[in-house]
Structures are given as structure tokens and as C-alpha cells.
């Protein structure tokens, strides 16, 4: 699996616009899985999972990493194309899909999740430094490996539209 994938093509944004595809990407970030395994873990129909994996694969977001012969067929193991995916611009539909998928994950959390939204007035310099620190925290976090609980981390820093300095 590659370390980084920059999202930018219309096909990739379209592929990311469906909540089940977002959930598939989250699941495949942990370890490779088959359509059947994903269907069970995400409580979805195999046909739906197969269709959405095809869309993600055609967009270059997942790939087949292993095949195995099983009772009269071939089983494919899918994996996310990169550990981390980032984008510098995003259509509003993509942002909505990401937050929808995250909201669904948070609603299923095993423990009380930490979700904080705070609005601050920041200078451009402080906002840039905060973005750098947040990026460093996420990039520096190390996976503890198999046997440990999986935690989702979502970080966002954005300037609100229409709010002008001194306003």
C-alpha cells in the first residue's frame, strides 16, 4: 500500500460521493478483505459491496492485492490504494459524503466519542501554524498494530465564508 494518494480527478470525487464507498475505504484502511467479509462487517449486501468496490477500483482508490482459489471460484482481497488520502480542493458533495460516513461511524462508536466544534477568530499566521500542528499530530500517530482497538481521527480547520475581519 502506498503512503499517500492525492485525490483530484472527477472520477475519484464521484467515487467518493457515496457513503457506502466511504465506509468501504475506512474498512479497507485496516486490512485487505473480500467482498463477503466487507458485506458482513458493514452489514451490506454482497451485490452492493461488489458494485461499489468496482467504482472505487476504477477510480484507483482500491486494488486487488491477493486472489485465492475457493470452491469453484476465485476470491479477491481488496485493499485501499494508499494509507492516507488527501485533497486540496473538494466539491461540496464529497465533503458531505465524508461527513455522512464519519457521522455513521461515530454513531456506532463502542465508547463515547470526542467530537468538538469550536469557532475561533485567528490571524492568518496562527491558522497556518495550527494547520501545521494538526497535520503533524495526525501524520506522527503510529498504528499500534493488530489486536488494538481501531480509532477514527478526523481533523478539519477551515475559514468560515462570509465572516470578515472586524465583522
What features would you describe in this structure?
- The chain is of the alpha+beta class and 167 residues long.
- The protein is 42% helix and 16% strand.
- It has a domain at 2-112: Orthogonal Bundle (Arc Repressor Mutant, subunit A), CATH 1.10.10.10.
- It is built from six helices and four strands.
- The strands form two sheets. A two-stranded parallel ribbon has the order 1-4. Strands 2-3 form a two-stranded antiparallel ribbon.
- Helix 2 crosses helix 5 (92-107) and helix 3 packs across helix 4 (46-58).
- The longest helix has 17 residues, at 124-140.
Structure, briefly:
With 167 residues, the protein is α+β, with helices and mostly antiparallel strands. The chain is built from six helices and four strands.
Reconstruct the topology from this structure.
Elements lengths: L1 E5 L3 H6 L3 H10 L6 H8 L3 H13 L3 E9 L2 E8 L1 E5 L5 H16 L16 H17 L27
Parallel strand pairs: 1-4
Antiparallel strand pairs: 2-3
Helix pairs in contact: 2-5, 3-4
Features:
single chain; 167 residues; alpha+beta; Arc Repressor Mutant, subunit A; two-stranded parallel sheet; elongated; transcription regulation; HTH arsR-type domain-containing protein; DNA-binding
In order across it, which strands form the biggest sheet? 1-4
Shape: elongated
**Radius of gyration from CA coordinates:** 18 Å
Task: Identify the CATH class of one domain.
Answer: Mainly Alpha
* Mean pLDDT metric: 86
User: What composes the largest sheet?
Assistant: 2 strands, parallel
Helix content: 40-55%
Query: Unreliable runs, pLDDT <50, ≥5 residues?
Result: none
The CATH architecture of one domain comes to Orthogonal Bundle
- Write the CATH fold name of one domain: Arc Repressor Mutant, subunit A
The CATH homologous superfamily of one domain: Winged helix-like DNA-binding domain superfamily/Winged helix DNA-binding domain
- The count of β-strands is 4
Number of helices: 6
What is the straight-line distance between the termini? 47 Å
Which structural class do the helices and strands define? alpha+beta
Strand content: 15-25%
Amino acid at each position: 500500500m502506498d503512503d499517500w494518494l492525492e485525490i483530484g480527478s472527477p472520477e475519484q470525487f464521484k467515487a467518493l460521493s457515496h457513503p457506502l464507498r466511504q465506509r468501504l475505504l475506512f474498512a479497507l484502511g485496516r486490512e485487505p478483505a473480500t467482498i463477503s467479509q466487507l458485506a458482513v462487517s458493514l452489514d451490506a449486501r454482497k451485490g452492493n459491496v461488489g458494485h461499489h468496490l468496482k467504482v472505487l477500483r476504477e477510480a484507483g482508490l482500491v486494488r486487488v492485492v491477493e486472489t485465492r482459489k475457493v470452491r469453484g471460484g476465485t476470491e479477491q482481497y481488496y485493499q485501499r490504494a494508499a494509507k492516507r488520502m488527501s485533497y486540496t480542493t473538494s466539491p461540496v458533495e464529497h465533503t458531505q459524503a465524508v461527513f455522512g460516513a464519519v457521522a455513521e461511524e461515530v454513531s456506532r462508536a463502542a465508547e463515547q466519542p470526542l467530537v468538538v466544534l469550536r469557532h475561533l477568530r485567528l490571524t492568518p499566521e496562527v491558522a497556518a501554524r495550527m494547520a501545521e500542528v494538526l497535520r503533524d499530530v495526525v501524520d506522527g500517530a503510529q498504528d499500534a498494530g493488530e489486536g488494538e482497538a481501531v480509532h477514527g481521527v478526523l481533523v478539519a480547520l477551515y475559514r468560515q465564508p462570509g465572516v470578515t475581519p472586524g465583522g
